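Archive record
______________

***
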Amino acid sequence: MRPPSILLTHSYYLQHDAKQVRKMKPYPPLATLITAAVLRRQGYEVRLFDAMLAPGEEEFERLLDDTRPGIVGIVEDNFNFLTKMCTTRMREASLTMIRAAKARRCRVAVNGSDASDQPTTYLGAGADAVVVGEPEQTFAELMDLWSHGGSELDRVRGLVLSGSERVQTGAPLRTGPRPSIQQLDALPFPAWDLIDVPRYRAAWTEAHGRLSWNMVTSRGCPYGCNWCAKPLFGRAYAQRSPANVADELRSLREVVGPDHLWFADDIFGLTPRWIEAFADSVIAQDAVTPFSIQSRVNLMTPGAVAALAHAGCEEVWLGVESGSQKILDAMDKGTTVAQAREATRRLKAHGIRACWFIQLGYPGEEWPEILLTRDLLREEQPHEIGVSVAYPLPGTAFYYRVQQQLGSQRHWRTSEDLAMLFQGAYSTPFYRAVRDLLHDEASAAPGAERGGLDLRWAELEQREMQFRSSAPTMPVIPPWAAPSEHETRVERQ
């Protein structure tokens, strides 16, 4: 019997997110492509519908009609932070795609952060199974079962089922957990040939003058920030060998030819030794390519930064979050303001762009803490910043702390919302005003006169009480945490 054809896809449509359309930095669905490569290695014929640059779900439905697959796998790109945000617009797209596939009598399996958090929503839309955790091995077993006419899905580990599989209670059935993949080198390289590379190249070069592409060298994060969701990888950390990553980079340069790389790891290169070995490997392969990464301020040691420069690193995004040590401690961030300063200066000294993620509105942040963040930005002058507000994602300690405050809106609709979903110190319009001021601070030329900015900060301070919440969430400060001398001085002013 000929096995049914398989169509893999994901539900992140750039066109549904106006902010990301303006930024125009589309990346292929890395997790989806790795899963496709695994299934191909097992002998399956796999097609891809790439939603990233598609106009909408209607194009997916047209492909369903043209190709008539027997199985549809919606594998979200779990390495894309926009996917991890679980926006409601992305959920709507996924549910629409499930219904469209079921209307054409396809079997449907779904994997992603939101599906892992809310499996009954996806099963209710018609999905036959929700794949929790890493998708590759579970999808491979599921395809083997379906391709041979099997129906006993409860034998496949890593699934959530509707309850109709040998259990008639109506409650979701969770099969046994699947161990995480430790030998990442054993996975095949992503199936890049399924991507319309010229389409990506045109979008990137028109917006930025070069093509950037994505890779990943690890999975997971061993740190415990209490607002960071880890629905798929948890706090485990698995890492590919530097030589294996360099081999993929060399192959990627031959097949795609990117001008720049974005390493989508939560943390790239946990140790200086790994980064230096990676640098040696890419140099030996003649594959040095400018790249950007995400990391932590405490990991930007002298050895790590020197190794990054040696490897060709162009830009590092750091989770600075706040200029207040009190807020960092409340977040269980495990870093200090002093480390943020040192990391930024060290990167600049090696010619690497230092960029910051800043988070506003975490419980306990008042006007003095906001000013500490502003002053830190002024003093250290990162090359670029990204500003968000505290966002309670399911499964996090922060979420459970504010869960009772959440109303009908528990997720942003798109990445542009910047909406407070719980009772912070201030309302959403206030934080949007602070965001705009911080961006203007970051874009001001070094040494430039800031009289106009000072005036706008003073005006916002005068109106600050108008935006205050009536019952702000109180912080949970570790008993060992104490404000710095600078914080004490600012709070007394």
About this structure: The radius of gyration is 23 Å.
